[in-house]
Amino acid sequence: MHPVRSFLSFASLTATLAAISLSLAQTSDAIDASTTKVDYVIVGAGPAGYVVAETLSRNASVTVTVLEAGLDGRNDHNMDVPADLIFVSTPTYLWEYNSQPDPNLGGIAPNLWQGRALGGGSAVNAMTYCRGSESVFDQWAHTSGNSGLQWSNILNDFKATTHYINQPADYQQTVNTNVYGDGPVEVSRASMIDLMDRPFAMAYEQSFGLKEVDQTDGEGVGVDLGLSTIRVSNRTRSYAANTYGYILANRNNVQVLPNSWVQKIGFAGKTAQNVTYINTVSNKVTTLAGEQIILAGGAINTPQLLMLSGVGNATTLNSVKIPVVRDIPAVGQNLWDHHFSVVVVQATSNVDTFYQMFQNATTAAQFQTEYLKDYSGPLGNVFGTEWATYRLNDSVFNGINGKHYTSLPQDRPHILAKIGAFPAYGMPNVSTMSAWATLAQPEASGYITIGSSSYTDAPLIHSNYYGSAADKAAISAAYKQLRSIFESAPLKPYEMQEVFPGSSVTSDADVWKAIQQSASSFHHPVGTCAIGSVVDSRWRIKGLKNIRIVDSSTIPYLPTCHTQASVYAVAHVAAQNILEHDAAGSKPGSYRREDSESMHSS
Fold first, then answer.
1. What dihedral angle (degrees, nearest 10) is formed by the CA atoms of 292, 296, 297, 302?
2. Tens digit of pLDDT for each residue in 412-460?
3. Can you give the pTM of this predicted structure?
4. Is 276 helix (H, G, I), strand (E, B) or coil?
5. Domains defined along the chain, listed by start
6. What is the pLDDT of residues 152-175, one digit of tens each?
7. Residue of 338, 339, 414, 562 marked catalytic
8. Which position among 523, 524, 572, 581 bears the catalytic label?
9. Is 524 among the residues known to form the active site?
């Protein structure tokens, strides 16, 4: 089901947000990209690209150009109003990527849409902010050889990218305010929680012996009522383009160019020299030279661009007649994502749901009035912010090799369960609650490749949902537990009936079909150009010169909750590393004797 657009009139709100957007507009003529060689060319204006651009451009003598294929959506109220995120235009602000038909799902091909706008994924996501288990970051540091990624160090980068503002509300929530600093992105709790949020949390607390925690301070297991990247002052989205973008707008040495789709990286031998991009409005093609190229396109677009430019598996490149610059088979491998399957129940009439908010004229008008008056009411929040993370009993893996799960550090959950007051895609558009059972750290990974040499052809994504026996056992157990949660005392008063998969689905075979049929993703891909594998400990592509990667593709393995916070923090670690490295050289991207680690690694 594609969501219907709201019939509400947001004329006054749109005008207000448009005025705000104009004040944030970036200077487009600070640097003439067609004639000037800049110090840093950054490909991608998502959270990572903005963080790196802001850090590097603090030096007024350094020039930075950020190229983004997507639009500037800062005057779009659907992007700014939290509850309107479900209406963000799919073809306008998203890469409409789909996985290849997955044999694990009986041939279903779930989508893996990605943000395509200034702000990248932070412009279109559900604004959830969390960090997850601290042992994950220690593993990243060990795997990559970059000590900045270990929890005790990267916590400073989490602080440097965010600040917390307390949202007055009539409910209690566990929040550790000591793990925030004075960074640009604002984090807050909800101004109100949905009627079923607390019962959902209580159901998991009682069923699995969990406690309420704040999963931004290193905790990984427990119930979290949720924090979001939403401004308290006007309950609008706080994201890379209207936080870091505001800072960049006041600097003449940096520019961010939307509608600039990079087609190819240009190399001279093993040295990156330029990028070629097309303006998607004027169709003008420009080649921009840079002392250093930094890829920040994300876990899907970055490996695709590398392969289109001759960096990747030589066999694949030869098959589509792309000259090989560097044979790196790991490019595009190691695709991790948070896969989930859905249970849907019909809610009682006293639960405020998507259906009531946008399709019941009386309540819709009430919610609009509240928001336009003082930013209060449901429109200033997302549909359900809380989630539960927990470990499965070892018995779930009896008879199979479950070592991946049973050997994970005790601070890491196996399952993430979440609820939202809206219908899942393909489900009846009635007053419903949808809940997800998710593998927090799956065993099996997927991969990304290309099928042609054209930049306009989508990459081939093999997501590999539930791709091992242990993954299948874990999601099957979690899905059954999720169904039973709705029968528990805290939630039963708010449920009328199970809409999907329905009460007639009882056998293991039928439950597995329901898991396959409802399988989707939180759109959290990471790992396809992992640090320690494709890039070295200082974010340089191994065997190449003057080119780095700083984005979600470098994250070697999933955090135990949503990835937004990690991308900001990892980018901040990388930006500091780049500053340290380039300060020791004569110019940005300069090659030094000790860079042989990158040039001769494979």
1. 60
2. 999 999 998 777 766 666 788 889 999 999 999 999 999 999 999 999 9
3. 0.92
4. strand
5. 10-81+111-129+239-336+448-463+525-602 (3.50.50.60)
6. 999 999 999 999 999 999 999 999
7. 562
8. 524
9. yes
